[in-house]
Amino acid sequence: MNWLFPGFLAGAALIGLPVLLHFLRMKPRAVVRFPSLRFLGETALRDTRRHRLLRWLTMLLRCLAIGLLAAAFARPFFVDSAARNHRAMIIALDNSMSMQTRGRWESAQTKALEQLDTLGAGDQAALLSMHPEPTWLVRMTDDFALVRASIKSAHPGFGKTRYAKPLRMAGETLAAHVAGTKSLVWMADEQNIGWRGADFTEKLPAGVKIVFADAASIPERQAAIVALRKSIGATNGIDVTIQQFHATADARKLTVRAGNRVLAEQPVPLRAGENRFSVSLAWPADAAGLRVSLDPDDLPADDSAWIASSATTTNSVLLDATTETDFLAHALRATQKLDVSGLQPVPFPQGAWPANSVAILRNANSFRGASLNELNRFFDAGGPLLIFLDGSAEQTAWLKQRGIQVTARAATDEPLHLRDWDSEHPILAAFAGESLLPLLEVEFYRGFNLKGDSLVPLANWRDGKIALAEWTAAGHRLLLAGFPADRESMNWPTKPSFVPFIHRAVQWLAAHEDTRENWHVGDLIPLPDGGGNWRALDTPIQQPNQIVKGSVQPAVPGIYEFGGSDGTRKFFAVNVPPEESDLSSWPNPEQLAALESKDAPKLLAASTLSISSEITENRQNIWWWMIALAGLILLAELALANRTSL
User: Fold this and answer.
1) Which of 74, 437, 452, 644 matches a 20 to 30 Å C-alpha distance to 501?
2) How far is CA 557 from CA 86, 302, 577, in A?
């Protein structure tokens, strides 16, 4: 027999209470003779023995009742030995924005339902969604109708998915199951960005089989609006950046709306890669923001983008102190020579860090004492960070708490170089259309390897280990550089590419294209103190109003208004993550096929608790019979106790 909550068995220790009471009631050793009773015969003696026997029986009934109640609360069940001949299946649904591509979601649903139909009596299934974090839509159950209904009612969102975490979560859940056949039905489009940072050397647990969806259909037309901003030097106009993902040219139409009003329309010829256009228009005085749209293609979700009416910017960059020539401060001040968005480095304040700033951390001092408390408050409120690793214990421990492992690279005589740059990432926008050779030539003399489920690599060392990455868990913006920010560790500060890289990195961390109001789905947006009402003004899917305080994390793009309790009113433009628009598949499908372990599965003991334990216990309901039996025993005990009380 197994127990769902074995801790309640400790209650059986109360059995000692009726035993103690029984012995306290035993006949005293001193014998007092009563002359009037000495003529009673054997009948009186037999009656005395009978009462003694009844008292023993009463004590045993009380002990049995207490033991049954303790066992009932521990929820007993018997492991079904036939379960080893049954199947356990987890269906993992990729519900990121890329699955809105025409035909992909419907195909995944159909394949998932087909796999579910292969299960029979005694089998179990569960449903797992991947975005924004792995979430059980249906836990392991034999109610296939519930799983089927949940698959049909699920829908893709607007965020981006990372495959490593849901893959491991599903694998570990199946490994703990007692079923003989365990399968993971992986319903994803195997998007390139989803597998970045995954460690393919970590196989699924032995015995877990993986079933992939059919190959994702290649879209015939795919372009995305990846950036909007007010035209520089003009009061009326919007600069639009469109990424064309096909090698062939295309002709589209661009439309600008304020609510339902059309403000401007113009044709836009698109060539492969990045395309920039300027749209002339008169911005309505009553418009909180504008929606810029292309005519729909195979992925309509990224054919619209929003820009808020306000354009307040923050150029403040918090920079920790350094005792040497500060190359970072020099690079930040150099951006002030640009036409827009010059950055101003400022030291960390004594109190709270300003929520509308970007913080750059380079040494262990920011991870100690009072600075550590302010860092945690700033980061938890959605404050963006750029961390240059120095290998200090404090810095490494802070990152480890967030699931990021840092390993120092062995010293070599040859300098280190970066490769595998993600040329589509916004931090490399300054190098768009240009050669990445200046970045490949930078020399590093000290470096660290990065590893973590939520890391998205932006550049690797030559051996494929992550060197530069973003960390996107829970909507935070964190950029990690696996090298110190000093001249002794690299020659990058002396290179012309250093200033534009730092400029674009800070802009990306601040989540704006020259305006702080431009955010992405999944970002944790810090709000003014005091809280207030969060209201959707223009979104593709209707969103309810929310009372928010501290921060908010939108799941749908659009224009939002924050009305503060102090009367402040602020508008936010939330757009889809631009990297999710790249629908290219993982280039090495053989790595996906090799995720299954070739090792023999370990046999689980009959007493092994699994995800199915609760289901098995609920089906057997042994606890109910135990409580009923305990009730009957208590009634019998009450009758006996009344007869022996005299």
Assistant:
1) 452
2) 44, 10, 10
Instruction: Tell me the pLDDT tens digit for each residue of 47-96.
Output: 566 767 777 787 788 888 888 888 888 878 666 555 556 899 999 999 99
Residues in the chain: 646
Task: Please tell me the number of Cα atoms within 13 Å of 642 on its side-chain side.
Answer: 5
> Do β-strands 358-361 and 344-346 pair in parallel, antiparallel, or remain unpaired?
unpaired
Q: What pLDDT, on the 0 to 100 scale, is given for residue 514? A: 38
Give the neighbor-by-neighbor strand order of the sheet with 261-270.
261-270, 250-258, 289-294, 304-308
Query: Phi then psi for 569, rounded to 5 degrees?
Result: -135, 125
CA distance 526 to 396: 26
| pLDDT 10s digits, 421-474 | 988 788 887 787 678 888 999 999 999 999 988 888 999 999 889 999 998 776
Assess contact for 310 and 517: CB atoms under 8 A.
Answer: yes
How far is it, in rounded angstroms, from Cα 85 to Cα 81? 8
Q: Sign of the CA dihedral 508, 509, 513, 514?
A: negative
Let me know if 151 is exposed, middle or buried by CB neighbors in 10 A (0-12, 13-18, 19+).
buried
C-alpha closest to that of 68 among 17, 11, 4: 11
